[in-house]
Amino acid sequence: MQLPNTLKKPSFLQKLQWAVDPVGFMESAVQEHPDIFTANVVGFGDTMVCVNHPQGNQELLTNDKKKLIAVGELNKIVQPLVGDYSLLTLDGEQHKRRRQLLMPPFHGERMQAYGSLICNLTEQIYSQLPLDQPFLARNTMQEIALQVILQAVFGLYEGERYQQLKNLWALLMDLFQSPLNSSFLLFSFLQKDLGGWTPWGRFVRLRSSIHELVHAEIAERHEKPNPNRIDILSLLMSARDEAGNMMTDDELRDELMLMMIAGNETTATTMAWALYWIHQKPEVHQKLIQELDTLGDSPDPMTIFRLPYLSAVCNETMRIHPSVMLTLPRVVQEPIKIMGHPLEPGTVVVSSIYLTHRREDLYPEPNQFKPERFLERQFSAYEFLPFGSSARSCIGQALAQFEMKLVLATILSRYQLVLANRLPEKLQRRTFLLAPANGVKMVIKGQRARQ
Description:
It is a single chain. This protein starts with 10 loop residues before the first helix and ends with a strand. Helix content is 49%, strand content 10%. The strands form four sheets. Strands 1-2-8-5-3 form a five-stranded mixed beta sheet, with helices on both faces. It has a three-stranded antiparallel beta sheet with strand order 4-12-9. It has helices at residues 11-20, 22-32, 54-61, 79-82, 92-102, 109-112, 115-127, 137-153, 160-174, 179-186, 199-223, 232-238, 249-280, 282-292, 301-305, 308-320, 353-357, 373-376, 397-414; strands at 36-39, 48-51, 68-70, 135-136, 330-332, 336-338, 341-343, 348-351, 415-419, 427-430, 433-436, 441-447. Strand 1 (36-39) and strand 2 (48-51) form a beta hairpin.
């Protein structure tokens, strides 16, 4: 089968570079073939067709489901983290039913109820940081995002189980903070439990401890149901599909694990990048502060959410540094064409979010941070897709954007920060995501008064 624009680099070297330096891999590939190419990378079978042109993205993401389908089986690479029963690994009708069950808690009034929680957690964590001492913004953002998950999703605010889950999850994520350790998730032959002192053995034991805590929490909810609880776990435990079926405990556990990895890691990383760029660009910081200062001392969370320049800053952060590199893979079922290239059944196709966001024909000077782009024009779902697109888009994107804006507004309104290191931050693989290599080192100089 003739595949479009096959990369010349040997397959082994492609896989190795994809694991260690995915940004370098994509940027060298797009120099060779600008709009669409075929690569050999880990986790997608032998070959993957990767498109980044808006026309190709649209053809891929809106194609007839009988001809091109998203296959949860291809997401098995994330199985060690999110299990066999999460939304990410389901297909067809199972995926559709589960998505319908999961949607309600992430929208409308339910989401707005988390506004005060997010602002209070942010103030609580940043008020404890000492003045004039460096801290890593990514670590503080991870702490905020994790506590939002534990409180809004799990309904845990304090106690031994809350503290254990918080500590164990932080340890689990720290195992994969480097590209080398992240390769254990990419290469199945490295996934050998040779004891608690080995990377994979440590991961397995931490995961098992987290699973035990999650199951204990679910069991306790079964024994002592409380219809007044509004946390997402309680809502999911009471949800029924069209046939009246509830989610099993294992399904609940895996969905919670998925929310932890998706809602914690991606949101924390994006917020850290936003602080980095806001303080790299004094003019951006100034415009943002002027907008925030118009709100008064106790602004309504939804008013913050609707601020145009803050929204543009968040969008530009997700454009220049998307946490997720690719859309979820789709598999050709019947012969089709993408951008004029014929594809046969069995071909795996993805859109590159990273490369789409770096197209100069869409975003002039793509390596420059310019929030004004998002005030000057609207970008389609095939030009700007930080949360993916169509039926496989991120289910928690509304909550993620809400959290991002409230956290940034709270920090910037109340504190004067500076970057502790003026050297540019670089993208680095962390699990399946892209994160700032040095964590964005910052210093709090003092509190600020509203002008």
